[in-house]
Amino acid sequence: MKKLSVIALAAVGAFIMGATAALAGGGGVAVAVDLIPLQQGSLPTSVMTYGRVVPSRKARETLSAPVATVESEVDVRDGERVNRGAPLLTLVPSPQTRSTYRQAELALKVARQLLARSRQLAAAHLETAAQLAQDEKTQADAQTVLETLRAEGADGPNTLRAPFDAVVMRIDASSGSFIAPGAPVIELARPTELVFKTGVVPAQAARIKQGDQATITPFSGSGSYHGKVVLSGAMVSAANGLVPIEISLPEGRLLTGEMGKVVIDTGISKGYIVPHDALLLNTSGQTYVVQSIHGVAKLVPVTEVSSRGDRILVEGNLVAGAPVVGTGNYELENGTQIRATGDHQGTLDRGSATSGKSGQ
């Protein structure tokens, strides 16, 4: 008897499970859900991303060593703000540079002596005018070489000064280090010409154009600031795989290096507007909605384009006029029989062919 009871209970359980599956799969009573009319409409679109405040390219200037030198003294530090004319660092000519300068001094001294002798001989008609002209040119050339070396700081210690009010971005040499001619030693930036630099994926970059309005909100909590896109890149950076975007900033409000988020207004897009509750995410990360097609559930992949409050603008192969499922949609699969609940029953569920509405 006990064995028969176990078999009977198993049979009853199997029957209940089968009946439940039949009901959910469309073989019996339809699942009651909230059906919402599908609307066509448009919403403002935007791109949200993160970045930091940096000097614009034209605001940067790098000072270089004019001749081979040895850095003897650094008067500033990274991030320091300096006024125009402030000392930045002192460069001392290297031994080779000092030797070159002494040779130039000697060359000018010899050229002057030769020219003086040539003038005396020419006055006595013992030297030609051509030879006198050549000696004059030799002295002029020697004078130019010496003056150039002196202007470059080859004659002694040379203090580099800030050419404008600036922020010290980077110091490329340390005290006592050898610096080759033309090597950068310090980078400056004008603090009044800052931009918010960020990057976006190519699909987002295609929607952004120069002049688009943007709102920057720094993480410091100092409020939000308005700017516009001044650079919309046309290539993907090899460094991070993103397209560079730069946004203008109001003068004097933010500091170099501040981080924050930016929302870029990219215009108006058209599509289908659905409530937030209608949007689902499957295990593969794909967003989708469930539509009622003649009382049968259909899962439709969609792409979220924009949102305003509870209203989501989506794109996808939706069936115009067929309502979308709100409450209860996460339980549904393709082919599940569904019906509208409450006031919607008898209107939306009759064939699920209500015309799509246009609206904002």
Write up what this structure looks like.
With 360 residues, this protein is an alpha+beta fold. The protein folds into 3 domains: 27-43 and 269-359, conserved putative lor/sdh protein from methanococcus maripaludis s2 fold; 47-57 and 192-268, Efflux pump adaptor protein, beta barrel domain (Elongation Factor Tu (Ef-tu), domain 3, Beta Barrel), CATH 2.40.30; 58-189, OB fold (Dihydrolipoamide Acetyltransferase, E2P). 22% of the residues lie in helices and 39% in strands. It has 4 helices and 23 strands. The strands form 5 sheets. Strands 3-12-15-14-13-16 form a 6-stranded antiparallel β-barrel. It has a 4-stranded antiparallel β-sheet with strand order 4-11-9-6, with no helix packed on it. A hairpin with a 2-residue loop joins strand 18 (287-293) and strand 19 (296-308). Helix 2 runs antiparallel to helix 3 (129-151). The longest helix is centred in the N-terminal third of the chain and has 29 residues, at 95-123. The chain is rod-shaped, with a radius of gyration of 39 Å.
